[in-house]
Design a protein that fits this description.
heterodimer, A: 576 residues, alpha/beta, 5-stranded parallel sheet, B: 79 residues, mainly alpha
Chain lengths: 576, 79
């Protein structure tokens, strides 16, 4: 992004009623343009929000951090350059660069990082914090030739990397990837001595743009996409199955088809992190199933669900896969070696993302992997991620079972459903946070929450968070629902209620209401309901109780219309 | 209005969104309240980015009018 574009974005008027989000930018150089870029990138990620950015004191990053109080902020970004740890590692001070000073400078770097760690530790307990370790080159402080890396450089990087390892283990902290920054902003094009000396801006505008874009991505991450639909021939493997047979398809180095093996390996790792993988292929069904059953395939057959193999249009396959997954096309990437097939799918599903597999351009494989990591990357892999494919298969089996059972009641009473409710005010429950921010269909009002807003909602004594864990004879689904609310006397007010679409049709929502009535001895539950484009399943659920007012449900009404519930409640833990 | 004038006008608009474009050639540092040191630095950064030219920054930060900037830019682009 050019500075001019950033200014135009920042100066576009917002609605006077737009909610405000305040961020803090910690950097010791003149922050003007960097702040403009960061504000612009955050506007692009949060177009409905008025973004404000406050900055640290010029020339004193560590001191500013020590006095910074995070109350009222949505997040903080910290850019720590070498000169923040010892001013002699910059160009605006004349404190000497001689070899006799290196020991002292290395010591200051270590103690400066310890101060940084202490502040970051405190701040990240309240708000999300993004940290960038030094992005600018060291001054010519050493006596060796530029081609040689000295012990001094290794020593200060060792201190910085110790800090990075510590950051990696903390949940509220997001460390900016120096490798990705290198890709977007080559080191030799980052520093501008001219502007540093005249204005106190050490960064080129291109570097500021790259840095700010990445920081915005970390401060306000997008929800990862959910599934990949892949082609088989010349994509998952090299060769046309119908021509070369099951043993003739290739995906190894020895058979000059390593990129297909790497692709399989990559899909398998994505599957293990909770990404759904399906196949859409124009092929002979029996032959393709045999191909997918090959023991040496790096993508396990059990990681793929569903498999759509026929000679009809791929858009029909995609439609059926989306139905089985119960998600929208905007959450999915379609990968095929044929641009024509990709275009045909896009014509039917304009919001699906399509990528062409580079079967004849091996070098482009890295670009494909980078794009997929950008779409599906997540910082933490949870239990629910690991079991996602299996639980989907179980859902389909369960739905098939419903059709076979004489009645829905009989079917549900025979599946051994077990629920575990947990009452808490734990704002650090990452799975609950994820559910609140990515669930669309069973969602009382579509309201999203930032980490700081969630913490604020759960601060009052009368507030609560109820999470629901489900399993049945088909397997566990993990944590599937979250209710946020407050109880006042015998009334419960529900501000947020979401349930994963994997958990539909099991009356978990009915059992949840029953549990809330009992837990708080409530006479009435008031829901802050708001219809959205996507929450029809929630509206239909409320309609079951035939309440005149969609937003309120009395206990008597609930008991009158609630269907038979047969879940075993295993535990009801309270940590309020 | 020449192509250079149009591009320069766009940079003035980005820096001073309330600027009345009719008055552009009359604009001076004294006539715009928001033309402070930050705006001056923003303007020179935008001009360097847009035209790919480097100026002496200390002098550029002291530019006082649209006309002066247009002349400096013209000299540089002709050189």
């Amino acid at each position: 992004m050019k500075l001019r574009e950033a200014l135009e974005i920042v100066k576009t008027p917002r609605s006077p009623s737009a909610p405000r989000a305040l961020y803090w930018l910690g950097c010791s150089s003149t922050p003007t343009h960097l702040r403009t870029f960061l504000q612009a990138y955050l506007f692009l990620r949060r177009p409905e929000t008025e973004i404000e950015i406050e900055t640290s004191t010029y020339g004193d990053l560590l001191g500013s951090l020590e006095s910074f109080q995070p109350v009222g902020y949505e997040g903080a970004a910290i850019i720590c350059e070498w000169y923040d740890l010892d001013p002699r590692l910059g160009f605006r001070r004349l404190g000497g660069w001689g070899p006799d000073l290196l020991l002292d400078i290395a010591h200051n770097v270590r103690t400066g990082l310890a101060r940084l760690r202490s502040s970051v530790d405190r701040i990240s307990q309240s708000i999300p914090v993004t940290v960038a370790l030094p992005t600018l080159p060291l001054p010519p402080i050493e006596t060796c030739i530029p081609a040689q890396s000295s012990g001094f450089e290794a020593q200060i990087w060792s201190s910085a990397l110790d800090f990075a390892v510590w950051c990696g283990a903390r949940s509220g902290l997001r460390l900016l990837s120096l490798a990705e920054l290198e890709r977007q902003s080559p080191p030799s094009e980052r520093f501008d001595l001219r502007t540093e000396l005249s204005f106190g801006f050490p960064y080129t505008t291109a570097h500021m743009s790259a840095l700010a874009g990445m920081i915005a991505q970390l401060l306000y991450p997008s929800s990862p996409l959910k599934g990949i639909i892949t082609d088989l021939d010349d994509t998952l493997w090299a060769g046309i199955l119908g021509e070369v047979g099951v043993d003739g398809v290739r995906f190894t180095l020895e058979t000059q088809a390593q990129i297909h093996g790497l692709y399989q390996q990559f899909l398998q790792s994505l599957s293990e992190s909770g990404v759904l993988i399906a196949v859409a292929s124009k092929n002979d069904q029996v032959l393709a199933e045999e191909g997918l059953a090959r023991k040496d395939l790096l993508l396990k057959r059990s990681s793929i669900f569903p498999v759509e193999i026929h000679w009809g249009p791929k858009s029909e396959s995609v439609g059926r896969i989306l139905k089985a997954w119960n998600i929208g096309p905007e959450s999915v990437v379609f990968i095929d070696d044929s641009p024509l097939e990709a275009a045909e799918v896009r014509a039917s599903f304009p919001t699906i993302r399509t990528l062409v597999f580079p079967s004849h351009e091996p070098a482009e494989l890295l670009g494909l992997f980078h794009t997929l990591r950008d779409c599906f990357g997540k910082a933490v892999i949870r239990f629910e991620d690991r079991i996602r494919t299996q639980s989907l298969q179980h859902r389909v089996e369960a739905e098939t079972g419903t059709e076979e059972a004489t009645s829905r009641d009989d079917f549900l009473s025979g599946i051994g459903a077990r629920l575990s409710f947990c009452l808490s005010r734990d704002a650090d429950d990452e799975r609950a946070f994820e559910l609140i921010n990515k669930t669309n269909q069973f969602n009382v009002n579509g309201r999203r929450l930032s980490e700081v807003q969630l913490r604020g909602l759960l601060t009052p004594q009368e507030s609560f968070m109820l999470t629901v864990i489900y399993r049945d004879k088909f397997g566990p689904l993990g944590k599937v629902a979250v209710v946020l609310g407050r109880h006042v006397g015998r009334q419960v007010i529900v501000s947020n209620w979401v349930m994963s679409c994997r958990a539909f049709s099991r009356r978990i929502e009915h059992a949840t209401l029953q549990h809330i009535f009992e837990l708080f001895d409530a006479e009435e539950i008031v829901m802050e309901f708001q219809a959205t484009e996507r929450n029809a399943p929630f509206r239909e659920f409320l309609a079951e109780f035939k309440s005149a007012d969609h937003s309120a449900l009395t206990r008597a009404q609930f008991e009158l219309f609630c269907p038979r519930l047969t879940h075993a409640v295993e535990e009801a833990v309270a940590h309020v | 209005m020449s192509e250079i004038d149009q591009r320069l006008a766009a940079l003035f608009r980005a820096t001073f969104p309330d600027l009345d474009e009719k008055d552009l050639r009359q604009v001076t540092r004294d006539s715009i309240a928001s033309w402070d040191s930050i705006a001056a630095v923003t303007l020179v950064t935008l001009i360097e980015d847009e035209f790919g030219e480097e100026f002496d920054l200390d002098s550029a930060a002291q530019w006082t009018s649209y006309i002066q900037i247009r002349e400096e830019l013209g000299k540089r682009l002709r050189a």
